[in-house]
C-alpha cells in the first residue's frame, strides 16, 4: 500500500464525523449540503464493504441495459476472483469501467467493458464501486489503512445519495480517470440544456 493520502480521504473523514456526532447540526456549517442528502452508512468492516459492493454491482440486473458500473480495484489482480461475476454483469450493464493499477494482464472481455490503468496510482488506496443510471445512484467509497498484522483494514461508507454519487464521479472526472458519463449529457439534452 502506498503511503500517499487518497484523493477521497477528506470525504471519508467528513462522513465519519457525521456518523460519530449524535447531533451533527454543529457540523452543518462546515460540511457541504450534499453530504446530507440520501442515506449513508459508515463502516470499517471488510465483510460489510464486500457485501455492499456486491449489492451495488448486482443492481445492474434490476435495471438491465441502463446501468454504468465503475469499479476501482486498487490492483487489477483483485478483480481476478470476481471475473466470472463481471462477465455476467457485462451482459446487462450499459458500461463497465474497471479501474486499477495493472499488476496483471487483463483482456477486455466485452465491447461495453473499459479497462482503465492510466494515471490510477493515486487511487491505489481506494476501493470504489459506483452504479449509476437514471434511477440508481449507489456508491461504496473506502480507503485501505495500514494493516495490523496480516489483516487488511478499511474505512469507508456506502450510500444511495444521488449528490454524493455524483460528487465521487465528478472527482474521478476531475482527476482525468474517466470522462463525464453519457448519462449526464443525456439528462442535459432532455432538460433542454446545450451539451458541453
Sheet-strand content, in percent, reads 25-35%
Described by strand count, sense and barrel closure, the largest sheet is: 7 strands, mixed
CATH topology: Endonuclease, Chain A
The count of domains is: 1
CATH class: Alpha Beta
Low-confidence stretches: 22-31
What would you report as the Rg, rounded to the nearest angstrom?
Answer: 17 Å
Q: Pairing-aware structural class of the strands and helices?
A: alpha/beta
Separation, N- and C-terminal Cα atoms: 38 Å
Q: Globular, elongated, flat, extended or rod-shaped: what is the shape?
A: globular
Per CATH, the superfamily is Endonuclease Chain A
Please write the string of helix (H) and strand (E) elements.
HEHEHEEEEEHH
Compute the average pLDDT. Answer: 83
Total DSSP helices: 5
Helix amount: 25-40%
- CATH architecture field: 2-Layer Sandwich
Strand order of the largest sheet: 1-7-6-5-2-3-4
List keywords for this structure.
Endonuclease, Chain A; 5 helices; 196 residues; alpha/beta; 31% helix
Amino acid at each position: 500500500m502506498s503511503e500517499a493520502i487518497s484523493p477521497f480521504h477528506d470525504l471519508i473523514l467528513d462522513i465519519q464525523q457525521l456518523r460519530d456526532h449524535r447531533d451533527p447540526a454543529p457540523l452543518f456549517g462546515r460540511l457541504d449540503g450534499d453530504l446530507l442528502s440520501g442515506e449513508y452508512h459508515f463502516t470499517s468492516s471488510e465483510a460489510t464493504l464486500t457485501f455492499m459492493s456486491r449489492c451495488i454491482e448486482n443492481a445492474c440486473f434490476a435495471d438491465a441495459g441502463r446501468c454504468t458500473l465503475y469499479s476501482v480495484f486498487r490492483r487489477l489482480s483483485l478483480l481476478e476472483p470476481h471475473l466470472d461475476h463481471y462477465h455476467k454483469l457485462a451482459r446487462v450493464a450499459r458500461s463497465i469501467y474497471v479501474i486499477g493499477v495493472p499488476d496483471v494482464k487483463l483482456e477486455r472481455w466485452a465491447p461495453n467493458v473499459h479497462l482503465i490503468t492510466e494515471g490510477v496510482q493515486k487511487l491505489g488506496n481506494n476501493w470504489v464501486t459506483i452504479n449509476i443510471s437514471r434511477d440508481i445512484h449507489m456508491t461504496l467509497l473506502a480507503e485501505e489503512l495500514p494493516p495490523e498484522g496480516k489483516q487488511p483494514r478499511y474505512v469507508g461508507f456506502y450510500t444511495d445519495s444521488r449528490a454524493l454519487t455524483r460528487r465521487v464521479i465528478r472527482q474521478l472526472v476531475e482527476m482525468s480517470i474517466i470522462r463525464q458519463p453519457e448519462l449526464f449529457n443525456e439528462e442535459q439534452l432532455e432538460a433542454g440544456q446545450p451539451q458541453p
